[in-house]
Write a structure and sequence with these properties.
The complex is a heterodimer of chains A (386) and B (321). Chain A is an alpha/beta fold and 386 residues long. Chain A has helices at residues 17-27, 42-55, 65-78, 88-104, 131-136, 152-169, 179-183, 250-265, 268-271, 292-305, 323-331, 348-355, 374-385; strands at 11-16, 32-35, 58-61, 82-86, 108-116, 122-126, 145-147, 172-178, 185-190, 234-236, 274-277, 284-288, 310-315, 317-319, 336-340, 360-364. In chain A, β15 (336-340), α12 and β16 form a beta-alpha-beta unit. Chain B is 34% helix and 14% strand. In chain B, β5, α8 (200-212) and β6 (217-222) form a beta-alpha-beta unit. The chains are: A alpha/beta (386), B alpha/beta (321). Chains A and B meet through α2, α3, α4 and β10 of A and β2, α4, α6, α11 and α12 of B. Bound molecules: iron/sulfur cluster.
Chain lengths: 386, 321
């Protein structure tokens, strides 16, 4: 279905990634947001606070991130599309409710504009050290999707995608921006509403009595419901059956948790968004995401100028990790993989896992606070090409 | 203000099945998920009594049951949502109020009730309690206060009286308890009442009144937890606690909440009654009025922002869509 025209600010804009993210939410049909101020993410909710009253939406600044991350889920179960936004310390506080959204299959979007961590860390400077938190930040096993834009334009585009995926799979989606993308001003083109594809909520059409809120469809995803439809349904963060009733058995746990993981895992190819460059003849591939991928463009140019057959694979989808794309690289003759990231080695663990010794994996760790310099990545490419 | 002047006697009833007249059935049963019974609560626990009063209050105020949602947190009282045959939400520990805030604000036509315990609402959820009252979100909060954490085995709570023994205060509690009614009043609740599980008629009327208020209403229900509070503190069983409530409760409608402290462990009166009943604009009323002033014609008034199920169903092409 196409986007609701009211929320789409069609035109050419010069805005930062945080603002573009907010516009993406509006275009996707989000009309409820709850948040708490934290650098460098606050501009997202500031934009929503000023735009929502013009489009019939509502932003509430809650008393903390914990409240924000559950208020949006209340709104979703009333039928709204909803978002919350934060950064490192606030995302840590939201972790329990990311798991709650996964367990209760509540479609919603969590935006993390990453800064340097741990703890209060570097509030105004970039990091990419929350990628594992995005995957495993809440306790227990669950499926989750995380996307990582590398420009304000993509912050807009992928926020629309994030909402669409959350509705499609009834799961939380994490938008992993970083301080650079959040605060970078660039041209952002917002297309006409007719050109923006929006996935509607999978609301059940079954009458009360014939609908079970956690009975999976063929794709493992149950139809959704909202309060006030007459179903008088129950939902809980406890392990539950298809009715949503608590069941404290190993069998119920196995059935539910496996489904929560599998519904995302089995669709990983569909969810995996990547961008390839110069990979046809490549012997070395630099795999990167977010702001780091922009330094990689320069590094790859420099390495090519030195005669190294290097290409790049940019991950827009971080989770589920696009391992089939890495597998394809290995099939097409890539023998060296390089992963620069603004952490001391997180997503590279996935790369190493998939490579299983079939390619040399060179880490380019960085503690955050600024971006890599291209020369460091060039040296890593040279090492991988040896 | 007295109980007589609050105009609580509204009696539009939900039509009950005619069969009730022929074979009298417990009128509360149809509010319960009977496929989930028996419940988990101990014999003598006060939570069930409060649910009984709640169901009768809902009955009395004639709310359409499809428009009534109940949100609980975690704990023995947190299980209430799971037993009520309404749209019911069992959320995380302490966070029933912010969940309910989102639920209510996204669909203002719903009547949203938060039903939880003292540990859930006043300890881990204390911050949300005061802020929801301050914002005057249109919610009814029913807080069953049994002075302890039941589900986890009887630990000290912010409502546990001085000297009382809990598993984490084996030598007696040394912290002053909260007076929850005073707290809710100070934070801005438009309706505040306290009763005990002995006062079933009064409690039912107060819940009815709370459900009819627009804005943040708070009803505290003092309740026995014989298993974990009563036994350790030599109160005895549920019946003995009811006796204690009967003997020591003093009705003080309209009294200033700062004068409603009590010591359940010691002696002295336990003030109960309808303490606060006032009006102030609820969050969304204020929002719409304020934005209309600030933005004029540009403002799109805030109402139901939820997806339209028929339109969504038409547009939704199936699982692969
Ligand atoms: S432990 Fe206490 S509060 Fe919990 S069900 Fe038993 S009596 Fe009630």
């Amino acid at each position: 279905m196409q986007a609701d025209r009211l929320g789409v600010l069609t035109g050419v804009h010069f805005i930062d990634g945080d603002h573009a993210c907010a516009e993406g939410a509006l275009a996707a049909g989000c009309r409820f947001a709850a948040g708490y101020p934290i650098t460098p993410s606050t501009e997202v909710v500031e934009r929503l606070a000023s735009r929502f009253p013009l489009v019939g939406g509502l932003f509430v600044q809650m008393e903390d991130e914990i409240a924000s991350s559950i208020a949006i889920q209340g709104a979703v179960w009333a039928g709204a599309k909803a978002i919350t936004v934060s950064s490192g310390p606030g995302i840590s506080l939201m972790a329990e409710h990311i798991g709650y959204a996964a367990m209760t299959e509540t479609p919603c979007v969590f935006v993390n504009v990453q800064r340097g961590g741990p703890s209060t860390g570097l509030p105004t400077l970039p990091g990419q050290a929350d990628v594992m938190q995005a995957r495993w930040g809440s306790h227990g096993d669950y499926g989750i999707i995380a996307l990582s834009p590398n420009s304000p334009q993509e912050a807009f585009d992928l926020t629309v995608t994030a909402f669409n995926l959350s509705e499609r799979f009834r799961c939380p989606v994490v938008m992993l921006l970083d301080e650079c993308i959040g605060h970078m001003l660039e041209k952002v083109v917002i297309p006409p509403a007719e050109e923006i594809e929006v996935v509607p909520r999978r609301l059940t059409t079954r009458p009360p009595g014939e609908y079970l809120p956690f009975q999976p469809g063929p794709d493992g995803v149950p139809e959704m419901v909202k309060a006030g439809m007459g179903h008088r349904f129950h939902m809980t963060g406890l392990t539950h059956d298809e009715r949503g009733y608590p069941v404290m058995t190993a069998a119920a746990q196995d059935a539910l948790v496996r489904r929560l993981v599998d519904k995302v895992a089995r669709a990983s190819r569909e969810i995996a968004l990547t961008e390839a460059r110069d990979l046809d003849d490549a012997q070395v591939a630099v795999v990167s995401y977010g702001i780091t991928s922009r330094v990689v463009v320069r590094a790859a140019e420099l390495a090519r100028a030195k005669g190294i057959k290097v290409g790049t694979l940019r991950l827009k989808t971080i989770w589920p990790f696009p391992e089939h794309r890495v597998e394809e690289l290995l099939q097409t003759g890539v023998r060296g993989l390089v992963m620069p990231e603004l952490n001391l080695g997180q997503l590279v663990l996935e790369l190493e896992r998939v490579a299983r010794g079939r390619a040399r994996v060179v880490r380019v760790p960085h503690a955050g606070g600024t971006v890599h310099d291209a020369e460091t990545i060039v040296r890593a490419i040279e090492e991988a090409a040896k | 203000m007295s109980a007589q002047t609050t105009g609580r006697e509204t009696t539009t009833r939900n039509p009950a099945p005619a069969a009730d007249c022929a074979a009298p059935e417990n009128p509360v049963l149809r509010y319960l998920r009977q496929d989930r019974l028996p419940h988990i609560w101990c014999a003598g626990c006060g939570i069930g009594t409060s649910v009984n009063c709640f169901a009768r209050a809902v009955d009395a105020c004639g709310i359409h049951l499809d428009q009534l949602a109940v949100v609980s947190g975690i704990g023995c009282t947190g299980r209430v949502a799971g037993y009520l045959k309404l749209d019911s939400f069992h959320t995380t520990h302490g966070r029933a109020i912010p969940f309910a805030t989102g639920l209510k604000l996204a669909n203002p036509s719903l009547k949203v009730v938060v039903y939880s315990g003292d540990g859930d609402l006043a300890a881990i959820g204390g911050n949300h309690l005061i802020h929801a009252a301050r914002r005057n979100v249109d919610l009814t909060v029913i807080c069953v206060n049994n002075f302890t954490y039941g589900m986890t085995g009887g630990q000290v709570a912010p409502t546990t009286p001085l000297q009382a023994v809990a598993t984490t205060t084996p030598y007696g509690n040394l912290e002053e308890p909260f007076n929850l009614c005073h707290l809710a009043d100070s934070a801005g609740a438009v309706y505040v009442a306290r009763w005990t599980t002995y006062h079933v008629r009064q409690l039912q009327k107060s819940i009815t009144r709370a459900l009819q208020k627009r804005g943040f209403s708070f009803v505290e229900v003092l309740a026995p937890c014989p298993t974990l509070y009563g036994r350790r503190n030599r109160v005895g069983d549920g019946l003995a606690m009811q006796r204690l409530f009967k003997e020591r409760a003093v009705v003080k409608n309209g009294v200033a909440t700062r004068e409603t402290n009590f010591d359940i462990y010691g002696h002295g009166p336990i003030p109960v009654g309808d303490f606060i009943d006032r009006d102030r604009p609820a969050f969304l009323e204020r929002y719409n009025a304020h934005m209309a002033r600030a933005l004029g014609d540009q403002f799109v008034p805030y109402g139901d922002i939820t997806v339209d199920e028929k339109a969504e169903a038409d547009r939704f092409a199936g699982p692969e869509g």
